[in-house]
Amino acid sequence: MTAEKTTFEFKTETKKLLDIVINSLYTERDVFVRELISNAADALEKIRHESITATDVFDDDLPLEITIELDEEKNTLAISDTGIGMTREELENNLGTIAHSGSSSFLEDLVEAAQKDVSLIGQFGVGFYSAFMAGTTVRVQTRSWDKSEGNEWVSDGAGSYSISEMTGLHRGTKIIIELKDDAKDYAQQWKISSIIKQYSSFVSFPIKLGGELVNTVQALWTKSRNEITTEEYTDFYKFVANATTDPMYQLHFSADAPLAINALLFVPTENFEGFGFGKVEPGVNLYCQRILIDQHSKTILPEWLRFLKGVVDSEDLPLNISRQALQDNALVAKIRKVITKRFLKHLNEQAKKDPEKYLEFWATFGIYLKEGATSDYEYQKEIGKLLRFESSKSDEGKPVSLADYVLRMNPDQEEIYFINGPNRASIAAGPYVEMFKEKDIEILYTLEPIDDFVLNHLGEFDGKKLVSADRADLSLAKDEKEEKDEEKTTDEEKQAGEDMDALIKWMQEVLADNVSEVSISKRLVDAPAMIVNPDSYMTSSMERIMAANRKDQGIPGMEASKKKLEINPKNDLIVKLFELQKSDVEFAAQVAHQIHDNAMIQAGLIVDPLEMVERNYKILTRVVQS
Ligand code: ADP
Ligand code: MG
Hints:
By secondary structure, the chain is α+β, with helices and mostly antiparallel strands. Helix 9 runs antiparallel to helix 10 and helix 18 (572-583) packs antiparallel against helix 19 (585-602).
């Protein structure tokens, strides 16, 4: 029956993975049954899709189903499907290597995640290997739909596997597991039946166990909302998302015109990208008349919604559409737009209904909406409503919406202000917010580097411009009294004004290499100086990111643009600097440079630390000597 047995070594990381699976994962073993059934269902979906267009399918008349056979005496469990099968080459590629192991920390991430929760193993695309949690030997007998001969793959998970030709197989795959002594349960009907009920009841093909049908095949999303129980929704979510927890949000949405769409979307409770293993695959599957045409579809939703799980079904799509054709299909683009807008609206409704819960969502998935705001012009308006930022009037950790900000705006305030910084405390202590505090104007704190990009892309909200508070041309509305105060000039004040003009002229010469201009600040209250940005688009935080990117990419040169320095004529240090500059110009120049560097640091910008520290010591030495 078998011939030409060839033995192969597993790839190094597969070996490591198997070692982990076999030796350190004992809890939640049930997971392996779910993984193998899910692979069988995938294989069936693939052949169902292929046979729509292909004329030449091997064993085309086989019913599409999954069969489970148990043998308590021999201690075996076998799961067969009449799916797409695997060729010899596919066997080698699919069951000898790890397909999705892009990053070097992949295995560490996996071990960490799996030790927390073994069911996460499927999320890493290594579900098949979980068979070794319960099996001493695993056999895979498979024959591809392309009519080539069948093969048997055998391994004990210890480092190698063999493949030999096997005749007489039908299309599809049979996986036979010889169970470990402490895993004999899995040869018992009640055990397998309860696992299927728990995890696999939504598999859209019949699952037969001991000749009996154990699942009800149904497309939940095509039923009407009031016919579906909460439990069914949750179970379905666990099934499509391979999840063990309840979803955070769910949206079941149906439309008939202009497009016939049934969509069932879920927001999970966890963000897998947050676990540090690269971009997650999209989690929404595209169906047409209940037939899966694109699993983990990259086209049915924008990329920044890749954290969603669920199903989209549209009868309007041609059944035989290929994956490539989906990408530039105008109908798909329309469906994408409808669903995306509907989902964003749903989030907004949920945010109003339960703001606390929305903040949880925001903390976990807000980063994706920010990505959308910077990359997808089409939905900016909708995303704008969903953004949350901390502000001078918010409690710590309780970010506010732009709409809330607008409601609180002063009557004469026309713009929405924001300032970037590493945390609330350092922003609140910095020079940029002084005038805002004094005038009781709310200012948003953008604590993440991407935030300034988001707000710049948005440009405005509700007709109000979004303005970074480190801009040079910032003018906070003055009240009448202040304007009068400014007009009224005594002789003394005139003299002070002239002194300041002289100081500015001098500082401009001293700092000619560092700043584009020095000017009197109308905004500073206490601090001696601050850096502002002449460019209306570039904020200091964006400058910082771009400098870091240039460094990462090894692009040399490209000096950061020169900033403006504003000084505070009411500040003692500035007043005294004018005197010092007359008596000891060299030392005064050192102080001017130090003021500039300090302001740069407060703006989060880079200064030369060697030069700065050396100068600082010189100044300190002068202080202790006098
Ligand atoms: P994933 O399902 O995430 O791709 P698995 O480790 O579960 O990862 O499976 C690896 C690959 O092996 C699958 O992508 C598929 O190509 C192949 N495979 C596994 N089981 C079957 C099956 N029953 N029929 C056909 N191919 C299968
Ligand atoms: Mg799998």
